[in-house]
Amino acid sequence: MHDDSRQGSEVPPLPKFSIGRTLASDDLTKHLEVKEILTMLYRHERGEWGEVADVIEDANERALGTLQGMVQSEFVAHGVRVIIRSSLSDGTSTVSLDSRA
User: Fold this and answer.
1) Are 18 and 45 in contact (CB under 8 A)?
2) What's the confidence (pLDDT) of residue 12?
3) Residue 60 in contact with residue 72, Cβ under 8 Å?
4) How much is the pTM?
5) How sure is the predictor about 54, in pLDDT bands with cuts at 50, 70 and 90?
6) pLDDT at 7
7) Distances (CA, A) of 39 to 45, 46, 84
């Protein structure tokens, strides 16, 4: 018997880098559910940069090309902006609320 249930389903994109050790600010869970934060991290490590300026997106792509430097994503949920920064050099990431908000 042939199973066609997987036809047409998309394969999720693979991570472009490892987010490594991840530190999050204490105030994140006051505004977002853990599932929402994990979804942002998932998107970040797959190269979805969210609402960053073009200059940051370009810098992210250059950093990925060498696996050196920093990449940054910005996502908005429930009226708060979340910034994720990952150091490709030392394998650490931080997740925090935008202090400019």
Assistant:
1) yes
2) 80
3) yes
4) 0.85
5) very high
6) 59
7) 10, 11, 12
Pairing state of beta strands 92-97 and 80-87? antiparallel
Residues 16-55 as b or e (16 or more Cβ within 10 Å = b): bbebeebebeeebeeebeeebbeebbebbbebebbebeee
Over residues 6-23, the pLDDT tens digits come to: 555 788 889 999 999 999
Question: Which residue has tokens 């935008």?
Answer: 98
Q: Give the mean pLDDT of 59-83.
A: 95
DSSP letter for 94, please.
E
Cα maximum dimension of the chain:
58
Contacts of 69 (CB under 8 A, 6+ apart): 59, 62, 63, 87, 88, 89
DSSP line for 81-92: EEEEEEETTTTE
Residues 6+ apart with CB under 8 A from 59: 69, 71
